[in-house]
Amino acid sequence: MTRTYTLHCIIPPHLLEKLLSSDDSEVRQVALDTMLTTARLRGERAVRASFAGAAATPGNARRTVFDCQNGVFLPLAVFARSEDGLESADDSVNRAFGGLGTTRDFYKTVFNRNSVDGRGMRLDGYVHFGRRFNNAFWDGRQMVFGDGDGRLFSDFTGCLDVIAHEWTHGVTEFTAGLDYHNQSGALNESMSDVFGSLVKQWSLKQTADQADWLIGSEIFTPGIDADALRSMKAPGHAFDNRLFGKDPQPDHMSDFVNLPDTEPGDNGGVHINSGIPNKAFFLTAMRIGGFAWEAPGLIWYESLKASHFETQFQDFANTTYRKAAELYGDDSAEQLAVLAAWQDVGIQISGILAGVARARGLAADRNGGTGRENGLATVNKQIGALTAQVTGLVRDVNALKGQVTTGG
Q: What is the pTM of this model?
């Protein structure tokens, strides 16, 4: 299979395309300009990706922020702030600098990961990219943020989870390298949403039940009727308005959206179908309880590292189940939570019978994230009841066979 090299943008193409049908000529023009600039950048990314070893630049995870001064050619950007410099008078520069630092500290503190590539890659951020550019992206080397148009979208440095989202695209690229199309691409997007949300929760010291689970809640300007770009808690309900339409994300495999594997088709719906694994993570975190970056985050992080560029939803679900066992034990509350979460979004863990999985899922729900000490006993009780039902059914079938044999 041919690897897909592309930009990883926070704003999905279907939102920008929706704006092209706006009655407002200015809205249409800004959307078109953003899409044309993004298309050109994708071409540059594809060419650069063909040169092995071009992406990572050593630098002890040092941050440097550059000001594009509304240009779109990154080499012409001017230096704005570094680790050794003073705070800038430019809020966008400081927000980007702070967001890169918080995300770096999160990965180092929680997962002992040294920067994006795990080996101290320098962290370059670019602000004020283009004029009224409605997007932010990771291009394989650095993170780039537009100012937004001021009418629909605000400055993209204003959301910590957006910065962490783009940062995590780099982590995925240097670990599993999930190919950016169809299910593997949707997993790629989901990883960025998951860890983007976790960085925000970590910075606010929020438990799973305290978090809003919204991605890009500050992206839209106050005049836009929308909660966020995406909701991990309720995929499909982040927005519903005349301008953007209804949030198209599904939260179950029965509603999986089949789209063309093209740029207009969002590479097979990578920003849309990511709602399914997003919901699975949310459900896992809520069932385990406490801080979501602890057990749930570690399970997902280790599963990401164990994945490869063609990993599908089923593969990843199976891996999270296996990693939960390796980290916390077979039949632990953590593993039961993973099992039940994937089952709730329509993905059955391979090798687990549906009836047994449902019994274990019930056990996970009853535990309610309070710990795993009673998990095994509860599961054994459920399985015992299921076994008794099967045994009774076999006895009844044998009795019927006996009646037929004797002519009864």
A: 0.86
